[in-house]
Design a protein that fits this description.
Layout: E1 15-20, E2 27-35, E3 70-72, E4 78-80, E5 83-87, E6 91-94, E7 103-112, E8 117-120, E9 124-131, E10 138-141, E11 146-148, E12 152-155, E13 159-162, E14 165-167, E15 171-174, E16 179-183, E17 187-188, E18 195-203, E19 208-212, E20 220-230, E21 235-238, E22 240-245, E23 247-250, E24 255-257, E25 319-330, E26 333-335, E27 356-365, E28 369-371, E29 387-395, E30 400-402, H1 413-416, E31 422-427, E32 435-441, E33 456-457, E34 471-473, E35 479-482, E36 509-511, E37 517-534, E38 541-549, E39 552-555, E40 577-594, E41 599-601, E42 603-609, E43 626-628, E44 637-640, E45 642-646, E46 650-653, E47 659-662, E48 665-667, E49 672-675, E50 680-683, E51 687-690, E52 693-696, E53 701-703, E54 707-710, E55 715-717
Parallel strand pairs: 2-5, 3-6, 4-7, 5-7, 6-8, 7-9, 8-10, 9-11, 10-13, 11-14, 12-15, 13-16, 14-17, 15-18, 16-19, 18-20, 19-21, 20-22, 20-23, 21-24, 22-25, 23-25, 24-26, 25-27, 26-28, 27-29, 28-30, 29-31, 32-45, 43-46, 44-47, 45-48, 46-49, 47-50, 49-52, 50-53, 51-54, 52-55
Antiparallel strand pairs: 1-2, 31-32, 33-42, 34-35, 35-37, 36-41, 37-40, 37-42, 38-39, 38-40
């Protein structure tokens, strides 16, 4: 009854047995047996896709491209058996017109050797009322298909994929080698698509359970009237799910995660930039904070989502929401981390951002980890941390709540690491005095005193810049160009690239043109604080500086600056001309006027910063920060019993009229809080050692303790 082949095996035939009463001929027992003798599985419709798993998505109108299947058919729409046996890698399906014809199969007892596959097609119902401890066959339940199983179902060394309806199961256990997949097209009986309800769900060692929300469709919901238990070695994966249960336990070495299943690092509201041709890498994704910049880059992706009720995936990690009426005990790992940037030959990928985990629990217990960390990068930027929000009536958790930004191998980690995300905890252990705590921790050890560091120098280095080029693009995407050809011979050339060498006393740019124009064109609008110019005294040239925004130019020097008597290269002091800009610009333009046979310039340094009177997240930020995004919150006043900023984390807020009130603060002197125009920061205690730096822009307001001790931090207050 079987046929082998080196290309694709034939499908098994069928054995049908009836037991009758001798005298009356009444049929009292019906058995169906399908056994393909282990010859091999049929191939997918596309042969290169390997063994068959999905049989025409359960639609059997045209089966001409599906070989190796045992097709059951007879004239009735109802099949009644007392036993069904599927062995030897047989694939079994009912042949019907699945677009119009409904079929009912009553299978009685199910037997198998865990190698066979049962396909429950569209408009088909298979019902079994008995299995011998373990589900003995692999099962594919297609959309609009229906599978009924006994109240207790245990999977070991078989897989089940559900896009249709499951019924009657109360206790579901996945043991070693078991693979269970729920898609949000499916459900349990009488529930809307995406909702699966059981009494208990247990995932044991080497068992795997995946709950997957279909894009632009209903969310995956697992509703358990009693217990979800992930034992040591058990594995649960999702991209987006809500778990409702009386109790949830994740044992030591148990793993529940939504890693790498949100937006891609280059997609979503916090998308980073893919690696531009001029750069060393891509930027990191964002979520709870700003994404890291690539090495020497300027662009940082923007934060989004609520810190109180995170409801979006990261540009990296997915979403896990938990409603646990009694106890959530985490001894293992619960995580929605962003993916790492590529570790290929050029190491250029940016890290993905952490996702969202929100838990409403009666009692939080355990010593494991809850993580929404950003992915690391090499030359790209690290992903930001995600968002964790925990609401609990009793807090006994002694593990770690992590929303770290992804690390990078940049020379200066402060630019490339993704910012921390946010961890918000509302603890009502003391009903009369609940605690609301916001924790920002980027997990970095930095021993130097904390400094605000508002200014950033644009680095002028670029990749593969020719010594004869009159234009080049820096690693940051700034296009530097000149109208003067490069001087002079190949053995004594002074290329344009020298203008960003990093010193005013070494190599320089020179041209025989009398009035060359040097232009810095930015990849996006920047707020330029000032420009430093280091003349080349051996061929001194006067200069004037202009800024341009939207085609409108402003002269910043009111004519040419006289460089007569220049001593830049001979003086021991660092001598330069400073031109204050203090405005947004698309370009900086420098006009040179030669005082001899050549025009020259030794070094140009452009210093940028955040726009002081802006509360929006511009593409460039001086300090990568976790953000309270007021647009995504239902309130504008954020009140906390404790604000903790440590591990080189930073805090910022969007929108004017955002108010942050902290009744207690803590930190390790490495962090920073920035209060922008129209915003307020209030503290309510009388004395404190300031644990992090504070920058208050003009037009902002701050209330600090009456007695404030400062050590290894910096306070800059330009507001009231």
């Amino acid at each position: 009854m079987t046929g082998s082949s080196s290309y694709e095996v034939g499908g098994s035939g069928t054995v049908y047995l009836e037991k009758r009463v001798l005298d009356t001929g009444e049929v009292i027992h019906k058995t169906l047996k399908v056994d393909n003798n282990g010859l091999g599985y049929p191939r997918a419709a596309n042969y290169d896709h390997g063994d068959l798993r999905d049989l025409l998505n359960g639609d059997y109108v045209d089966i001409s491209r599906s070989g190796g299947i045992t097709w059951l058919w007879h004239h009735s729409d109802v099949y009644i058996f007392d036993e069904v046996h599927i062995h030897g890698k047989a694939h079994v399906a009912i042949l019907t017109n699945t677009s119009t014809q409904e079929v009912l199969v009553r299978g009685g007892k199910m037997f198998g050797d865990r190698t066979g596959v049962l396909h429950v097609g569209q408009q088909q119902t298979f019902g079994f009322d008995w299995v011998d401890i373990y589900i003995p066959v692999n099962t594919q339940v297609y959309r609009y298909g229906h599978l009924e199983l006994p109240r207790r179902a245990v999977m070991r060394d078989v897989w089940m994929e559900v896009n249709g309806t499951l019924s009657d199961i109360e206790d579901f256990t996945v043991e070693s080698g078991g693979l269970l997949y729920f898609w949000s097209y499916g459900s349990t009986r009488n529930k809307i698509d995406g909702v699966y309800q059981f009494v208990n769900m247990t995932i044991r060692a080497d068992g795997k359970f995946e709950l997957l929300t279909v894009a632009d469709y209903n969310r995956m919901v697992l509703n358990l009237t009693s217990l979800m238990e992930v034992k040591a070695g058990g594995y649960v994966r999702t991209n987006d799910m809500l778990v409702i249960a009386e109790n949830v336990t994740i044992d030591v070495a148990g793993d529940v995660h939504a890693d790498w299943s949100g937006h891609s690092a280059s997609d979503g509201p916090g998308s980073g930039l893919d690696k531009p041709s001029y750069s060393t890498g891509a930027s990191g994704g964002a979520h709870g904070g700003r994404g890291g910049r690539w090495d020497n880059g300027l662009y940082s992706s923007v934060a989004y989502d609520s810190m109180y009720t995170p409801s979006q995936p990261g540009s990296g990690g997915g979403m896990i929401h938990l409603e646990v009426h009694d106890t959530l005990r985490v001894e293992g790992r619960l995580h929605a981390n962003g993916e790492d940037g590529r570790h290929d030959s050029d190491g250029s990928g940016g890290g993905g951002a952490g996702g969202s985990i929100m838990a409403h629990v009666g009692h939080l217990d355990g010593s494991g980890t809850v993580e929404v960390n950003g992915g690391e990068a090499y030359l790209g930027g690290g992903g930001s941390g995600g968002r964790i929000a925990v609401y609990t009536d009793w807090y006994d958790f002694i593990g770690e709540l992590q929303a770290y930004g992804g690390t990078t191998h940049h020379t200066d980690f402060r630019e490339g690491y993704g910012s921390s995300g946010t961890v918000y905890v509302q603890d009502k252990s003391n009903q009369d005095d609940p605690i609301r705590k916001l924790i920002l921790d980027n997990n970095q050890v930095y021993t130097e005193p904390s400094r605000v560091g508002e200014l950033h120098k644009i680095r002028s280095a670029g990749y593969g810049v020719s010594s004869t080029s009159t234009t080049f693009t820096t690693y940051a995407g700034v296009v530097v160009s000149t109208t003067g050809s490069i001087c002079c011979s190949s053995s004594n050339r002074h290329p344009l690239r020298n203008i960003g060498s990093g010193s005013g006393k070494d190599v320089y740019y020179s041209t025989r043109a009398s009035n060359p124009v040097i232009t810095y064109e930015f990849p996006f609008t920047l707020y330029v604080d000032h420009v430093r110019l280091y003349p080349q005294c051996s061929y001194a040239s006067d200069y004037e500086v202009w800024s341009e925004l939207g085609g409108i130019r402003v002269n910043l020097t009111d004519g040419y600056v006289d460089t007569y008597g220049c001593t830049v290269q001979t003086d021991s002091e660092d001598i330069y001309g400073r031109v204050d800009v203090g405005r947004k610009a698309d370009k900086i333009i420098i006009n040179l006027k030669a005082l001899s046979s050549r025009a020259s310039m030794n070094e140009v340094e452009i210093y940028i910063r955040e726009e002081p009177n802006s509360t929006v997240q511009d593409p460039f930020t001086s300090r990568l920060a976790a953000m309270i995004v007021a647009e995504d919150e239902n309130v504008s006043h954020f009140e906390l019993e404790e604000l903790s900023v440590l591990g080189w984390a930073a805090l910022g807020m969007t929108q004017e009229k955002s108010v942050l009130t902290a009744h207690g603060i803590s930190g390790d002197h490495s962090g920073l809080a920035t209060i922008r125009e129209g915003q307020e920061l209030h503290t309510t205690f009388s004395r404190e050692v300031m644990p992090f730096s504070v920058l208050v822009h003009a037009g902002a307001a701050v209330t600090l303790p009456e007695y404030l001790d400062c050590k290894n931090v910096e306070l800059i207050i330009r507001g009231s």
